[in-house]
Amino acid sequence: MSDPLSPRDRIDRVRARAWALQILYRWESMGGDGSIRDALVETTATRRVSPRRLPYLRAVLTAAEAHLEEVDTWVRQALDNWRLDRLAAVDRALLRLAATEMLFMEEIPPRVSIQEAVRLAEQYGGDESPRFVNGVLDALYRRLGATG
To answer: Most CB atoms within 10 A, among 3, 38, 137, 144?
Structure first.
């Protein structure tokens, strides 16, 4: 399966995901008060986000907010001996971001979502984050395959 995105579009999507991670983290750092959309508006009011990245950023965050309960349910099912509320906030945000793509953004191949989440975990997470995020998302992918 070939990627229909141009190299420039791929870069924009990668950077939009990094923004989405930061916004999900910001929202959670505020105690989940307000909406994810509020965190997006506040972030874009104070930080310069390229207009090329905004459509994807808005789309993934809108999907995450609209389906947060379902996303969290799927992530919880993929966690092995972990509770979602006990995870590092960055790991939880990464899992929610990738799970949103995997569950609700059909144009994104699940393996791309996993790979990008692992890359973000390498940049923003702890030492164990990349392996942990990969394992949880791979388990989620297998569960999705079993139900699809």
So the answer is: 137
Nearest to 56 by CA among 90, 92, 100: 100
Q: pLDDT tens digits, residue range 13-69?
A: 999 999 999 999 999 988 877 899 999 999 999 999 999 999 999 999 999 999 999
Q: Model-level pTM?
A: 0.92
Where in the sequence is the domain holding 33, given as residue range(s)? 7-147
Burial of residue 145 (number of CB atoms within 10 Å: 0-12, 13-18, 19+): exposed
DSSP notation for 17-47: HHHHHHHHHHHHHTTT-S-HHHHHHHHHHHS
Please, are residues 139 and 99 in contact by the beta-carbon 8 Å criterion?
A: no
pLDDT, residue 148, reads 53
C-alpha distance across the termini of the chain, in Å: 19
CATH number at residue 94: 1.10.940.10
C-alpha to C-alpha distances, 13 to 44, 47, 85, 89, nearest whole angstrom? 16, 17, 28, 22
